[in-house]
Amino acid sequence: MITSMLEMTEDFQKVFEEMFKVVGAPTDIPLTDDWYTTHQWTAEQEEEFHKWFVQYHWKGEGKKGGGVLMRSASTKKACEKGWQYFNLMYGWKVKETK
User: Fold this and answer.
1) Which of 11, 22, 36, 37 is 20 to 30 A from 43, comparing alpha carbons?
2) % of the chain exceeding 70 in pLDDT
3) In this predicted structure, what is the pLDDT of residue 19?
4) What confidence tens digit (pLDDT) does each residue in 47-61 have?
5) Integer CA distances (angstroms), 63 to 10, 19, 31, 53, 93, in order
6) Residues 50, 76 contacting (CB under 8 angstroms)
7) Rounded to an integer, what distance in angstroms lies between the CA atom of residue 47 and that of residue 58?
């Protein structure tokens, strides 16, 4: 079990650092069983990270090594599917708006 970002691959570290940065969270949060409950993001923050994630894997650095996707994504559609999986598995909960 990964308990710190230092134990992740370089691509995972970069993606997680960006995700934490979007919500203003420190990147040294211990990745315990409930680490993902420590912060939430707004729909706008989620969309900002979503755009970054897809761009990173489609045209950016993540394309070189596959990023956090299981395989290199050669199309934007493949990156979008990768985003859906990543967000389901690791994304913050979206803050409820009133």
Assistant:
1) 11
2) 81
3) 92
4) 999 999 998 888 777
5) 13, 18, 26, 11, 27
6) no
7) 16
| Cα–Cα distance, 70 to 42 (Å, whole number) | 27
DSSP state of 8: S
Dist CA 60 CA 5 (whole Å): 21
Range 77-93 burial, b when 16+ CB lie within 10 A, else e: ebbeebbeebbeeebbe
Q: Dig out the tokens for 37 from the structure.
A: 């409950």
Cβ neighbour number for residue 56 with a 10 Å cutoff = 20
- Cβ atoms of residues 41 and 23 within 8 Å: yes
Structure tokens at 30: 């211990």
Q: Is residue 90 classed as helix, strand or coil in its secondary structure?
A: helix
